[in-house]
Amino acid sequence: MMFQKFILMAVFSFLCLAPHLAYAQNDEDSSAFRTTEFPLPRFVSLRSDEVYVRTGPGRKYPVSWIFKKKALPVEIVLEYDAWRKIKDIDGEEGWIHKSLLSGRRTGIVSENDEIKMYKKPSDSSGLLAKLEPKFVVKIDRCGQGWCYVDAQGFEGWVQQKSIWGVYADEQFD
Fold it and tell me: Which of 79, 70, 76, 75 is nearest to 46 (CA)?
């Protein structure tokens, strides 16, 4: 009898919570879960050296993985209250509390080979440095296919298409 009550309570709890959980993670209706006026999707960066990524929008959800590097770029694809569903460079998705994210733009060198950093937004200008794949840069501004970046003190221009953390046609300063 006790076991039947337990099963009945578990089923009732699931039926009450399931629609809310499914709706909170429904990517098709992202407009229902907008808590800011910022565009979706958009790129941001990690604010801390240790950021927990959860399976759902809340502390009650289990941790899927932990980012261990500050300033990594992530793409926000959905908002729910104080939580942001993000996607990383590998396409993995999870939920992060907004307090662990920064509006500071960063990018990751996404090419398989090193990329070149130039003095001016032109591949015929002087070469400043070569950046290795997966190198993280701070993005200052982008436009007309080029981004001005800071790579650990080296500042210059890289082709926008070589950086994950900025959209192909995005312009900002």
Answer: 70
